[in-house]
Amino acid sequence: MMLDTVRDITTPELIEIRLHPAGFLPRGFAFFIDTILRWLLMLLIAIPSIFIGDLGIGLFLISIFLIEWFYPVFFEVVFQGKTPGKHLVGLKVLNDNGTPISLSASIIRNFLRFADFFPLFYLFGLISMLTNKEFRRLGDIAAGTIVVYTEPAARRFSVPEAIPVPPDFPLSRDTQKTIVSFAERSVGLTKPRQEELAALLPQLSQTMHPQEPQGAARLISIANFLIGRKS
């Protein structure tokens, strides 16, 4: 279960981790940095190639192909999902099950950049990111990858204290995790946003007992009960 843009997953090693998908702006800034670095690298190769004649031109064209297509693949696979641009912005790319990105997945997501580019200036990729709740472009969807923040912001949060209230019925493990996650993040959300998210779970955020809190406050109270706080 997922509220907002936080994804809780369990890795194949049964380690529970929380991922925060990165949006368009930080990813665009990282891409801009990597583009500048690629162009600088091409320029460094072009200068000596000029003095080698036709052989130099041939080598330069080959280097352009390799840099354009394998620059991100090399860094993502060797440096744990981080190109220089992603590293500077605080992002990394993972398989969507939370494991480090594989060589095949990196090749697929980067080689499909041409599909994201169509019809002009990555319009398809932008539309895909804006319509996907995890901001995944076409290459990410095809490769089964996700770009996330390196340091999950939610680690700074904790469940705010409130009078513990037990839920009206037994909750699954995923639902319990969702409620605790919401409570942890609630301190960084506006009240209207809290109520908007709480409305996604009306069976839990609303109750027939008027003396008990309603909406987001009720979810936070349930979270206090779930983590074992006493009144």
TrEMBL record:
Compartments annotated for it: namely: Membrane
Domain RDD positions? 22-144
Q: What membrane topology was assigned to this protein in its record?
A: Multi-pass membrane protein
A Pfam family that the UniProt record links to this protein: RDD
Q: Which residues cross the membrane?
A: 39-67, 111-130
The GO cellular component terms are: membrane
Q: Which UniProt keywords apply?
A: Membrane, Transmembrane, Transmembrane helix
Principal place of residence: membrane
InterPro entries in UniProt: RDD (IPR010432)
Record's superkingdom? Answer: Bacteria
- What's the protein called, per UniProt? RDD family protein
